[in-house]
UniProtKB/TrEMBL annotation:
It comes from Fibroporia radiculosa. PANTHER family: NUCLEOLAR PROTEIN 6, NUCLEOLAR RNA-ASSOCIATED PROTEIN. Keywords: Nucleus, Ribonucleoprotein, Ribosome biogenesis, RNA-binding, rRNA processing. Gene3D superfamilies: 1.10.1410.10, 3.30.70.3030. Belongs to the NRAP family. GO terms for molecular function: RNA binding. This is U3 small nucleolar RNA-associated protein 22. Residues 1-60 are annotated as: Disordered. Residues 43-52 have a biased composition (Acidic residues). Residues 212-365, 369-529, 536-691, 705-931, 933-1087, 1091-1232 form the Nrap protein domain. It is found in: Nucleus, Nucleolus.
Amino acid sequence: MSNLKRKRGTETHKTSPKRRRPGLENVSDAASIPRKQSLEDGVANEEDEYAESEGSVQDGIMEEWSGISEQGKNMEAAGHSGTHTHKPPRGEELRDIKDAADLYRSTSFKLQIDVLLPNIRPKYARSAPLERFLFTLYTFLKDLSPVAPQHPLSASRDLLKKGIAVPYPLPLPTEDTNWKVSFEKPSDILLVGSWAVKMSVKAKDQRRYVADVAVTMPETLFQEKDYMNSRFFHKRAYYLAVIAGAVSNKKSGMDVDVFYESASGDPRLTTLVLRPKHGMLAHTRIRSASHDADQSAVDFTSLNVEVRIMPVLPSSSPIPLQRLSPSRSNIRISSNDAPSPLCNSALLLCTTYKSHMITMHALAESVPAFADALALLRVWANQRGYGVGDRLCMRHFDTRGPWWAAVLELLVNGEESLPGTTFHKTAKRKPLGKGLSSYQLFKAALDLLARHDFEKEHIFVKTNDGHRFPPEDYALHEAVFVDSTSTVNLLAGVPLSALEMLRHDAKMTLDILDHSNLSEDPFDAVFMRDKRDVATRFDIVLRLNLSSAKLRDPNTHASVEHGSAYNALLEHLVSCLYRGLGNRTKAISVLHPAPQARPVSQAHPSNPSTIHVGLLLDTEHAFRLVDHGPTAEEQDSEAAQAFREFWGEKAELRRFKDGSIVESVVWSVSTADERTHIPVHIARHVLARHCGLIGDAVRTWQTQFDSVVRLPESITGIYRTTGAQTGFKAAMSAFDELVRAMKGLDDRIPLAILTVSPIAEALRYTSVHSPVAAPGPVIFALPQFARYVEPMEIVIEFEKSARWPDDLRAIQKIKLAFFEALASALATSIKGLTASVVVGHGAESSDIADQACLEIVTADGWAFRARIWHDREAILLSRLIDDKPHIAPHMKRQREGDPQERQAALSAQEVYQRRFVHAPRHHRAIAALCHSFSAFAGTVRLVKRWFAAHWLLRGHVSVEAVELLCASVFLRSAQSTVEGLGSPGSKERGFALVVELLKDWEWSQGMYIPLYHGTDDGGDKTPAVTVTAGAKTGVWALATELDSGGHVWTSSGPDAIVARRIRALAQATWVALQGMESGSFEAMTLFLHPLEHYDFIIELDPAVLPRYVQNVRADPAIWAQRAKYANTRADAEDVRLCPGFDPAQAFFDDLKRVYKDTFILFYDPLGGDRFGAVWDPSLKAPRPFRALGGFSSEPIRKEGKAKDKDKALVKLNENAILSEIERMGAGLVKNIVIRE
C-alpha cells in the first residue's frame, strides 16, 4: 500500500445524510424492527426530513433563477449583464478542487463518482411502505402459535399436506432418528444486512434489493449435540418451513408471494423470500396487539426490494462454539472421521448476522468514506460477475456480501499479529487510517486483492480480544479470511482458482487506473462496462453437461460436507482441473446461473445440469507438450502412485536427452494449430477419468473456429499424399533459401543485393490459410477450382550506385533489365526454378510508377513476386509534384506543367510510399507481435476471415488495416507493468475482443496504435500524432508513430457507408457470440453473410474459380462430382501453375473501376462465388440529361403516353448495366439475381 497517498481530514464527498433509526444510540437495538409507535414516528420523521430536503433544493433553484424582473432590468441598465456576478473561487472552493485532485484520480473522476453513487442506491426516503410491512411481519411472527415436538419425518409430512416442503439438508432424517423438531415464536427479530445500515447497492439485470430479517430461534429448541450430522440445519429447516406455511396462508393477510432460495445451491443456507404480489392491495388491514386501524399503503413494489427471512442461532444456545472449530469432525455417518470445516463454518455463519451489521455501522460512523468505498467495490464486483444477475455469475461469490465489507475493515483497522504461524507473515498488515477518500479506499482494496497470495498467507482481521481458534485449525481451508468477530472464515469453501480470477480482475483494473493518461477516462472501463461476457473474458470456455457425471470415487462425507452431492461434484471437478492444468492457467472459473427462488413446495434447489468453466491461460506454459512427475527412483513413493492414479493410462516412464527417467505425460500434436488445443485435451482427459464426462458432455468451440481457416479435408489430403510442403515454417524456410541463392549471385548481376525484405502476409504468419507449395504433381492432382497459389511478395534492395539514371521512366526500364538478369541467373543456378518478368498491373498503366515484378516459382512449388526498391524514385517523384519546395505554398503561382502528369506522380508516390517504405516496416512490426503474443497470428487470421466472409476484405478494407485493428487489442496490455496482463491467450478470445472493438469504436475520432513503440523503426519515444478521420474515400484513421495521419492503409476505404455496415455486422456478430452462455452458439454462423440488403447478386460459376475451395461455404459436391471422371486427363496447358491468377478478383476489379460511380460492389476474395451490389441511391431519382453524366441512363416516359418520352429527364438504366455486366463476365457469370 506504499504507493497510496493518505490525506488526513474529512471526506470531501458526502452522500445523502445518514438518518438514524429510532433508538440508534443503542447499536444492539438499532437493527430491531421497532414497536408500532416508534416505527410510525420514524417513518414520519423520515418523510418530513425528505420533504424538507426537497423543499430546500427547490428553494435553492428558485433563488438561483428568479427570471427577468424589474430589478434585473435595472441592473442590466446599470451595466450588469445579469443577476449573477462572476466572482473568483473562494478559499474553501479552491481547497475542494485541490482535495478532489489529491484524494481522487481527478476532479472529473470525482464528479463521475458523485453522479454514480445516488443511482446505485435505493430510495430510502421512499421506504415507508416497506417499513410498515416489516412491522406487520414483526407482529405476525411474534404471534405465531408454537408447534409441539415431533419426529422430523412426521413433521415434514404434516407440512407437506399444506403444500409446504421442509428443506432438510444431508444427511436426511430417517425413521430411526431419535431427536425431534418443534416451533416456538422467535426470541428476537432483527433487520440486518446492508439494508439496515443503508448500504445496499443495485445488483445487475434489475435484480431486487434485499432486506434481510434475522429471526432468532429460541434456545429451548436446541440441544448440546445439535452440531452433529447437520442436526442444527434440520431444525432450522423445519423452523423456516413453519414460517413459510404461516406467511403463505391466505388467512395471514400478508398478501405476498413466498419462495425458498438457497445460496450457492446449499440447502443448509436456505432462506425464505417474500415478494409483493403484482396488484397488491393499496390498503391492507394491519393487526396490532392493542387495536386494529387502517394504515396507509404497504405496497413496496416500487422499491424493487424483497424481504429475506433467515433463522439464526441465539448467542445463548447450548451448542458449544468450541466444537465448531474448522479442525473438528462433526459428520459421523461412516468410518471417515475427517474434519468438517465447511459444515462448521456454515453453522457459525448463522451466529454472525447481528455482529456483522454492528461492525458495518461502526465503520460507517468512524470512517466517512466507508459507505461510498463499499458501494464502489460492490459495483466493480457486480460488473465482473461477482454477484447475482440473470447472466452467468462467478460461483462462490453470491453469498460473500460480508466479505467485501471485511476487506475494507482490514484496510482501516489492520491485521491481527500472529507470529510464528505456518500460513502467516510475522509482520502484520498496518491500518491505513480513517481519513482516506472513497476512491483511495477502493483502490487500496484492489491493491490488496491484486497482491495478496491467499494460498500462502492467511488473513485475520484485527480484533479486540484476539481470535477464538488458533491459525493451525484453518489448515484445511484453501483460503482464510477470518472476520473481526473471530467467528467465521469468510472465504470458507472458495477455491483458490476463483480467487486467482479475482486477483486477475483487480490487477487489470489497477493497470487501467495507473496507466491511463489524462486524455483517457478509465471510469467507464472500471465501473460502467459489463465485463461478464465469457467470449472476451476467458481464453477457453468449456460447456459441461453434468447430467451424465459420475465421480470415480464417490464420497458420502464430501456430499454432506458441501451440502449436496451436486456441490461436492463441482468442487471435485474444479480441484481436478486445477491440478491437471497446473501453471498452464492463470485462473479457472466456474460460471453458472445465480440462485433462483423456488416454490415452497419444493424442498431442494434445482441445480443446473449445464455449467461453464472459463480458463485464463498462461501462454508461457499453456502449450507445453510434456508434464513431468516423480523420478524413476521414487516409483514406490506415495507421490508416484498419486501421479499414476491421477493421470491413468497417460502416465508413463520416459527417458529424456539429459539422461533422466521420470514419470511423464506427453501430449502429441501434429501441427502448430493443434498445439493450442493442449489445455482442452488435458481438461477432457481429467474430466473423463475423474468425473465421467466423456464425448459431447464437454464442449468447446476451438475446433469450429479452426475449421474456418482450414481447407477442406479432401483437399488437404491431396497435399499430404503428394508430399507437398505446407505451413508457415515451410514458407519461411523457402524464403530463406531463396534469399541465400539471390545473395550468391553477386558476380552474375550488375549490383550486389543488400537486403531482401518480405512484405507478404504469409511470411508473417497472418494469412487466412496456411501457405502451401504447389509442385507439378500437386497441381495435376488438384481440381481446377483448387489450383490457386498465392505469390509471396518480397522487396529487393541493391547496393548504392551512381549509375542509376535520373529519370523515372528510365529507372523503370533499368528495373526490367535487372529482373531479366536476375531471372537468368536464378534459373541457371537453381535446378527446377522458373522465373519470368511480369509487366503492368490490371487496366491501369503508368510509365513512371513501379509496375514490373519478377515472378519466381521454386522447384518445390513456392511462388514469389519480387520488386526492386530504388530510393532515388522518391526524390524524383517529389520534384515532379512540386519543383519548388523551398517556396511557401501560399506564395507560389499557379503550377505549370501537365496536371495529368502531376496526378500520375501523386499516384506513383502513394504506391511507392506504401510498397517500399511502409510495407516492410509494417511487416517487421506485425511479425514481432506474432512472436510476442502466441494468439496474435490466429486472431488476425480469424478476423481477416470474418471480413472476407462478409465481402469486405481487400475490396474495402486492406489486410494491413485489419492487422492494425488486431494489434490495437493486443497492444493495450503492452504498456502494462505486468507482462502479458490482459492480452488474449487464444485466437477465439482475440477475435471476440476485436468484434467488441468494432461494434463500439467511434471511427470518426480515429485510433492510435503504438505499433512501432520500442522498435528500431519507431524508437522509444511516442511522437505527437494527429488523427484526422472523415476522408471522402476512407473514413477510418489508424494512426501509428510513422503514420500520423492514419490513412496509409485506409486511403481507399472503407467509406462512411461501408464503415457503418462494418459496425452493424460487428454488433450482430456480438449478439451471436452471447449464445455461448445459452449453448446455442455455432461458430460458423458468425461467417455466414446476409444477402437481404443487396440490390442485386452476381452469381459466378464455382467450377472455373481457382480459389473456390477457400470459400467458407464451399460445396464439397462440386469436386466430388468432378472426381467421378478421374480417368480423364487434362492437357499440360490446363495444369500449368499460374501464381496469383484469380479471374473472379480481376472481374471484381474491372467492375469496380468501370462502375465506381454507379454502385458499390462487395465480394469475398477468399473463394467467393457471388458479388453483391448496392445502387447509388442518388442515381435513382430523375435528373436532367447531360453529356458525360458518368452512368448509363435512359429517358423517363411520360405518364399516360407510353411512346412519347421526356428528353429532359433521365434515370439509371439498370437493365442495360446488368446486361453489360453479364457480357463482360461471359464464361464466369452464371446468373444475376435482382432483389426487391
